[in-house]
Amino acid sequence: MKKQTLIIITALVLVIILILGIVFFVVSKSTTTGSVFPSSFSSLFGDDGGILGDLFGLDDTQETTSNEENSTIPPGTLPALRQLYPYPISGMKLLSKETTDESGNKTRELFVRIMERSTGNIYDISVASNKATRITNTTYAETQESFFSQDGTHVISRSIAENGSTVTTTAFDIILGGEDVTGTDIDESIGSLKERFSKTNVTSLSVSPEGTRIFTVSDKSAGSSHDRFSFTDESAKQLLSSPLSEWISEWTKSDTVYLTTKPSAGVPGYAYTLDANTGSSLTKLAGGIPGMTLHMSSKKNLGLIGSGSRSSLTLSLLKDDGITSLPLSTLPEKCSWNDTDTGIYCGVPSYIPSASYPDAWYKGTVSFEDNIWYMNENTGELLFLASPSDYGLPSLDIINPEIDTEEHRLIFMNKNDMTPWILELDF
């Protein structure tokens, strides 16, 4: 017994010496590389059990949970530039709602309402926490583009049929859980989409600034039909019949729709205004600009004009007295006017690969790596806001940017994967 006891004790001592030796080696190595002591134990145990985890079969799930609880990011703190939702979406809208806490204090909670691209489900994403809550479960598969009404209670979405050529545009009411406007029982915890109407052959769609009316350009046998209707009434008023079919529409002022010829590199483009109430005829706004694209402001008579060519993008400012070049090489589609039309927030490519613009970007053969800039329209002052690389993020190709009225938050989509993002501003 004494000999067996001596062997056991000797074995235990050797094991302890081996463990201490490993710890000493890892700590010494970490010290020379500037690592702190707890990181040495991470090397030993690690997220997957590490060296000693392999030896002793430690539970890696518990360790992962422990790492999350002891994250270096304090609870409630989120990066200023971040992804809001990890899956592709077809459209989004920044909204707010009033909430009351346990003490009866009322506050405004900001959230982003999105339509998921693959399912058509609607989610609300809290700006404060990034928490996503599904509010509808009606499947409307493979939505390509979606537009919400101003209050977020209606959505019009575009999808491509299985034949790959027919585009269907469908308007929905968003029925929240507990509402019963259809005469049928609705799950109290989740809502649904109620179809209002559906149209085909719509090639361009824009929503009025007050968010209640819709303008469409639709193909017809000889040219195109330009019509106005609402989210809740499909009865259309034709504003214009044109012999041309390839138009891009924008509706940023209540009484004016802007129409631009479809842009292509080296091809002169033209922009016109159309009375949103009476229609009837077009008034030329600008023209003769190669690869022309346009983004008008909502209050002043200002516009951003983009011009594309081989390996270059030019952004210009349209005013009543003419057109002036701006110091930002980007596309108008990557910019958002602020609420007072005194400044623009833009995604600006860090470099521009050799290609024919804007065609190559539209077709997806070229992708940009954007930084985010602000320009004061009155003074021309430029302010650098953010770069994805500063946050350790992948490159972002910014589309559909929208700045809130207080200019504290910029939301946009990443064209690379169609996910929604936000930049919170503090200046």
Quick gist of this model?
By secondary structure, this protein is mostly beta strands. It has helices at 2-32, 37-44, 50-56, 60-69, 359-363, and strands spanning 81-83, 89-100, 106-116, 122-126, 132-134, 143-148, 154-160, 167-175, 192-200, 202-207, 213-220, 223-230, 237-242, 247-253, 256-261, 268-275, 282-290, 293-296, 303-309, 312-319, 322-325, 335-337, 343-349, 370-376, 382-386, 398-403, 409-414, 419-424.
Oligomerization state: single chain
User: Order of strands across the biggest sheet?
Assistant: 1-28-27-26
Q: What is the 3D shape?
A: globular
Structural class: mainly beta
Question: What does this entry look like structurally?
Answer:
The structure is a single chain. This protein has three domains: 2-69, no CATH class; 91-200, no CATH class; 297-427, no CATH class. Helices cover 14% and strands 44% of the residues. It has helices at residues 2-32, 37-44, 50-56, 60-69, 359-363; strands at residues 81-83, 89-100, 106-116, 122-126, 132-134, 143-148, 154-160, 167-175, 192-200, 202-207, 213-220, 223-230, 237-242, 247-253, 256-261, 268-275, 282-290, 293-296, 303-309, 312-319, 322-325, 335-337, 343-349, 370-376, 382-386, 398-403, 409-414, 419-424. A hairpin with a 4-residue loop joins β27 and β28. The longest helix is centred in the first third of the chain and has 31 residues, at 2-32. The chain is globular, with a radius of gyration of 28 Å. The protein starts with a helix and ends with a strand.
